[in-house]
Amino acid sequence: MPDLTLDTILAAALEGPGPVVPPIVQTSLFTYPDYAAFEARMTGCDSAPIYTRVGNPTVAAFEALMAQAEEGAAAVGFASGMAAISGTVLAFVRPGDRIACVEHVYPDAYRFFEQMLRPWGVEITYHPVAAFAEDPEVLRGARLAYLESPTSVMFQTVDLARVAERARAQGVLTVIDNSWATPVVQQPLGLGIDVVLHSASKYISGHSDTVAGVVVARAELIAQIRALTLPLLGAKLAPFEAFLLTRGLRTLAVRMRAHEATAGLFVDRLAGVKGVRAVHAPGANTVPGLTGRSGLLSVEFDGSVDIPRLCDGLRIFRLGVSWGGFESLCYPARAGLAAGPTANAAHRFGVPSGLVRLSLGLEGAEDLWADFTQAVSAARG
Ligand SMILES: *Cc1c(COP(=O)(O)O)cnc(C)c1O
User: Ligand 1: distance of its center to the CA of 82 in Å?
Assistant: First the structure.
């Protein structure tokens, strides 16, 4: 069935008659009727499930829906977004290779590169995200381009189709963390990017009750991950988490539109708030291929607003890491900077101490705006 909208792909029960929700197959192993069937499985002649570390029907149902959503040939689930990141990079990078990475990359991805891959002989260089489309030196000789667009915290963007075209010409594998956008507002594979990965803990789950990750790409790339890092590092997605993620995907498109509407209200009004120096909130057509906005943005205040007081004055917004759930969250960059400069990308690439990141949830937009502005007023002067 070609040309279905993403809303239909996510919400329709296309599998046919039977349970409308894939059952949770909570088993570690699968058995075989006879020797011939067992040998066929062991020699790869048959793809029936064998052991839940390498495959499970509940996980496969999520992977199939996720592949469709990102318009990729195949997908593989992981136990976390970080497992998806490490499982992808380690499947394609060897000692002596170089990774060209965006500045303002997710902090634990930065620590993985610096504290684990660099000592193993992998070179990592960091570049402003715009440079991937403009500076030919960024990709020259690199094995892998590790992208976020928008980037973490600062939400800088790049024209992904241009990056993909340059990378392809130079034989560089492109990987993007698409957690911020989700396939609802950006489908990087269609723009020519090779591999899309997600922290499914964020919008894909949508309910702040799951830690998980997923990777989508063409079949041979997913096959390489399934042959190497999925079974051998073993950070598989569990059946119950996969069940929750499929459930999350059913409402992803409607949730994203609600997040976007609230974010739009904040972006329209924030420029008029005293003490606001800048708003980092890319949206539809900030760059080609980005068709909308999520609920995650950051606001930079000047020195007239006391950030700890702002945080303490919030009543609906909670303080916390992560994002993408039903609940609104505030993350003050100051708190992360206070943790010290050891392997901290925020120090290295410069995040302003007056910046707060907001994850706008599914509460009433006017309630959130009233809460935020009363806290800002109380924190000023
Ligand atoms: C949270 C996050 C991750 C890590 O995901 P986990 O599921 O927490 O391991 C990766 N990338 C981005 C952009 C994130 O925000």
Answer: 6
Convert the pLDDT of each residue in 76-99 to its tens digit. Answer: 999 999 999 999 999 999 999 999
Taken in order 256, 86, 133, 151, is the CA torsion positive or negative? positive
Cα(179) to ligand 1 centroid in Å equals: 7
CB 371 within 8 A of CB 311: no
Residue type for position 143: R
Ligand 1 centroid to residue 69 C-alpha, Å: 19
With a 6 Å cutoff on the Cβ, whether 229 touches ligand 1 is no
- Give how far Cα 42 sits from Cα of 53, 88, 159, Å: 15, 25, 45
Pocket of ligand 1 contains residue 152 by CB under 6 Å: yes
Shared domain check, 197 and 85 = yes
CA of 199 to the centre of ligand 1 (A): 4
CA distance 249 to 70: 12
Digit-coded pLDDT (tens) for 117-171: 999 999 999 999 999 999 999 999 999 999 999 999 999 999 999 999 999 999 9
Model-level pTM? Answer: 0.97
Kindly report the backbone phi and psi dihedral angles of residue 263, in degrees, each rounded to the nearest multiple of 5, phi listed first: -65, -40
Alpha helices, DSSP H, located in the chain: 6-11, 35-42, 57-69, 81-92, 107-111, 131-134, 136-139, 160-169, 182-185, 219-227, 229-233, 239-250, 252-270, 307-313, 333-338, 345-349, 365-378
Cβ 86 under 6 angstroms from ligand 1: no
Q: How far apart are CA 100 and CA 111, in angstroms?
A: 15
CA 29 – ligand 1 centroid, Å: 29
Look at ligand 1, atom 12, and give the residue with the nearest C-alpha. 106
Whether residue 17 is found in the same domain as residue 55: yes
50/150 Cα distance (integer angstroms): 39
109 with 235, same domain: the answer is yes
Domain count, the chain: 2
Tell me, yes or no, whether 257 and 169 share the same domain.
Answer: no
Q: Which of 182, 202, 210 to mutate to test the pocket of ligand 1 (most atoms within 8 A of CB)?
A: 202
